[in-house]
Write a structure and sequence with these properties.
- The complex is a heterodimer.
- By secondary structure, chain A is mainly α.
- Chain A is built from 15 helices and no strands.
- Chain A has helices at residues 6-34, 38-42, 54-64, 67-98, 104-113, 123-131, 135-144, 161-165, 172-184, 187-195, 200-211, 213-228, 232-237, 246-253, 263-293.
- The relative contact order of chain A is 0.15.
- Chain B is of the alpha+beta class.
- Chain B has 2 domains: 4-224, P-loop containing nucleotide triphosphate hydrolases (Rossmann fold), CATH 3.40.50; 240-369, Nucleic acid-binding proteins (OB fold (Dihydrolipoamide Acetyltransferase, E2P), Beta Barrel), CATH 2.40.50.140.
- Chain B has helices at residues 43-51, 93-103, 108-122, 137-150, 167-184, 195-201, 219-224, 229-234, 362-369, and strands at 4-12, 18-27, 32-36, 58-63, 66-67, 78-81, 155-159, 187-192, 204-209, 212-217, 241-247, 253-255, 260-262, 274-279, 285-286, 294-305, 309-315, 322-328, 338-342, 349-352.
- In chain B, the strands form 4 sheets. Chain B has a 6-stranded mixed sheet with strand order 6-7-8-3-9-10, with helices on both faces. A 5-stranded antiparallel sheet of chain B has the order 13-12-11-14-20.
- Classes of the chains: A mainly alpha, B alpha+beta.
- Bound molecules: adenosine-5'-triphosphate and magnesium ion (MG).
């Protein structure tokens, strides 16, 4: 609905500006805090205008925790999760939409049900499997043989990138979104490809994948940020410092009871931590908007 | 070019819908066979069975003598033109044309040659580097044709390829397609529900109803001698007028509600049985009021001037149903007029009321036997 009345125009703009201010205010405060010396940041009220200590604070934050290493870890984890989620979900959506196999509906229902099982809910069993990825197989063999066989096998994923990424890469949401998108593609396109002697995989790579690229871009942004923001899971599976992600590093910077509360340094760390996701959004936003607003015909 | 043979073809969909009811059909080498019928009669199903997009419930399909029942669409050496064209939206016209050839590992120079050739025939040379969404409906239709042509298949399958065009463009594309068919001479199966299209394009046509082939024949043959009341009503526009009656004792006349119409010759069927008399609007001719040959009087209820023709609707034979008469555009008729009408007995069609089958005249039978 598009209406053109001056009052409405003003009203919507006022509302828009208010909302933007609401969203940006905390970010601005973080920025200001990151530019102040430690004394100013702890004075009440805190100054509203930036100081001149930005680079000093950034440097301090960078050295206090191993932020370079942690940025890299977060980067690997977030990209791995985004890539994994998209690859797995687009393939499952392809299978569910275009193939007629036994228990297809059951498979879809199971994927859908897994929406109710985010990592927080299944954290104990997931941790157990990550500690020894062979646990399910050992359990299976021992059950089948009635406990006659005692197996000692270990494949430890704690403190590895696999351990950070694999438990998080199944996505019911993305599968569902891809399925919905595939269902809007006319059947005749698949049929034309069949007549053009395309194998199912050729159809997938030559036609489905290029048509899905805006959706893929949009999901990549969302999933990257989802991965970047993970806190609980990395906290659990990484015990060695060189495997920590930046979100954990940030948490470790938080002032403890007896130390001087150096919020300026923490905020400088936060600025560093939020740079990569912002860059990803800036880089992919054209695609992101396209994917959200209109699925290109 | 090979022929296509369908033998005892039957298709029942998963839900139990019988789409094709046991059909035998042969598409001769190089001919264009049009499949005509009302919506839902199974035309697309039959075409898709030939393409291999649906599996047969029973029967055999042969292309050039080879049974293709179990073959994938890509292995059947057919090309299909879809109603909505189904062009790959993200590829240029050139890539659209090349895609099938690439998948079949056609050498590059050969692909280029065929695309150039098809583009020349269809006059889409300037469009080769555009994407489908940058094309008009008519251009898209030609690209869809091009994608079929470059394959140089044994058989073309068309599913209402012109129905997304506006009326004027459709008439133009119809001619183009016919010319193309004459040049290429590829065996074709052409699905349409537009009888003008079927009549003008087809070497032979099949009229289908509810999964059954009602009649197969050359267009003019089907028009002149419809084998069932359904075909008679379906072919020809405006549709044939039908009147219920009884076959006379001599089987040379039909008794209607108010009058008796002489048939000229004897027809088959049982004397005294219920029949349906069919007369095409263009075969009802105005005559003098006291004319000996008048078979009835039309009370004009509605007049439709179409330019070249004047369609007059009204009651004839004192029936509750309205009949239609096609008069020349220059004729003068108004609501309330009464027009005495005559008909050449050779233009009368008699159908058995129960089965809907045509009651042949003795002449027709003799000709058929010879
Ligand atoms: N995939 C399907 N599953 C079940 N029934 C189907 C399927 N496709 C078609 N039908 C049914 O089969 C019958 C024939 O359908 P078909 O598409 O062949 O008709 P058509 O003659 O092409 O009609 P139209 O002129 O509207 O395209 C219809 O009753 C239709 O409802
Ligand atoms: Mg159809």
């Amino acid at each position: 609905m598009i209406e053109r009345t001056p009052i409405l125009d003003v009203l919507t703009h006022v509302l828009l500006v208010l909302c933007i201010a609401l969203v940006l205010l905390p970010v601005y405060l973080a920025f200001v805090a990151a530019t102040l010396p430690v004394g100013a940041v702890n004075s009440a009220p805190m100054p509203w205008l930036p100081g001149d200590q930005l680079f000093a604070n950034l440097a301090t934050a960078w050295q206090r925790e191993d932020l370079g290493r942690q940025l890299f870890n977060s980067m690997v984890m977030a990209s791995g999760i985004a890539f994994g989620k998209i690859s797995i979900s687009i393939l499952s959506a392809f299978a569910i939409t275009y193939f007629n196999f036994p228990f297809r509906k059951t498979a879809f229902a199971l994927i859908f049900v897994s929406l109710m099982l985010p990592v927080e809910v299944r954290i104990v069993p997931t941790y157990e499997v990550t500690a020894n990825a062979l646990t399910p197989f050992i359990w299976l063999i021992e059950t089948v043989t009635g406990g006659m066989v005692d197996i000692r096998l270990r494949w430890n994923l704690l403190n590895t990138y696999e351990g950070l990424i694999l438990p998080l890469i199944a996505s019911a949401t993305a599968t569902f979104l891809f399925r919905q998108f595939f269902m809007t593609i006319p059947d005749e396109l698949a049929e034309a490809a069949k007549i053009d002697s395309a194998t199912p995989l050729r159809f997938f790579f030559d036609i489905l994948l290029p048509l899905s690229r805006t959706n893929i871009a949009a999901l990549a942004v969302i999933m990257f940020i989802f991965g970047w923001n993970q806190y609980l899971w990395p906290l659990l599976v990484t015990t060695e410092e060189n495997m920590n992600t930046i979100v954990i590093g940030l948490n470790r910077m938080m002032p403890s009871m007896d130390a001087i509360p150096e919020w300026n340094v923490v905020m400088a760390g936060a600025l560093i931590a939020l740079t990569p996701p912002v860059l990803v959004i800036l880089f992919l936003q054209r695609w992101f908007l396209k994917g959200l607003v209109d699925s290109e015909k | 070019m090979p022929d296509v043979e369908l033998q005892g073809v039957r298709k029942v969909y998963a839900g139990g819908v019988v789409a094709i009811e046991g059909l035998d059909l042969k598409i001769e080498d190089g001919e264009l066979l049009a499949l005509l019928g009302p919506s839902g009669c199974g035309k697309s199903t039959l075409l898709r069975l030939c393409a291999g997009l649906e599996t047969l419930t029973a029967g055999d399909i042969r292309i050039g003598g080879r049974v293709v029942n179990g073959l994938e669409p890509g292995e059947r050496d057919i090309a299909m033109v879809f109603q909505n064209y189904a062009l790959y939206p993200h590829m240029t016209v050139r890539q659209n044309l090349a895609y099938g050839l690439k998948n079949r590992r056609t050498p590059g120079p050969e692909i280029d040659r065929r695309i150039a050739e098809a583009a020349r025939i269809l006059q889409i040379e300037e469009l080769l580097d555009r994407q489908p969404r940058q094309l008009s409906g008519g251009q898209r239709q030609r690209v869809a044709m091009g994608r079929a042509i470059v394959r140089e298949p044994q058989v073309f399958l068309y599913d209402e390829p012109l129905s997304n065009l506006d009326a004027k463009l459709r008439a133009h594309a119809r001619l183009e397609l016919k010319k193309l068919q004459q040049t290429l001479g590829t065996t074709s199966l052409y699905v349409t529900h537009d009888q003008v299209e079927a009549m003008t394009m087809a070497d032979r046509l099949v009229v289908m109803n509810a999964g059954v082939a009602q009649q197969v024949g050359r267009p003019m043959e089907v028009y002149a001698r419809p084998e069932t009341a359904f075909v008679a009503g379906f072919i020809g526009s405006p549709a044939m007028n039908f009147t219920a009656g009884t076959l006379g004792a001599d089987r040379r006349s039909v008794a209607l509600a108010g009058t008796t119409v002489a048939l000229g010759t004897m027809v088959q069927g049982e004397a005294g049985s219920a029949v349906t008399l069919g007369i095409r609007p263009e075969h009802l001719l105005p005559t003098r009021a006291d004319g000996q040959d008048a078979i009835g009087v039309l009370e004009v209820a509605l007049v439709e001037p179409l330019g070249a023709d004047l369609l007059v609707h009204g009651r004839l034979f004192d029936e509750t149903e309205t009949s239609t008469v096609r008069l020349p555009g220059s004729a003068d008729a108004r609501r309330g007029d009464v027009i005495p009408l005559a008909v050449n007995p050779a233009d009368l069609h008699v159908f058995d009321a129960a089965s809907g089958r045509r009651l042949h005249t003795i002449d027709e039978d003799r000709k058929a036997a010879a």
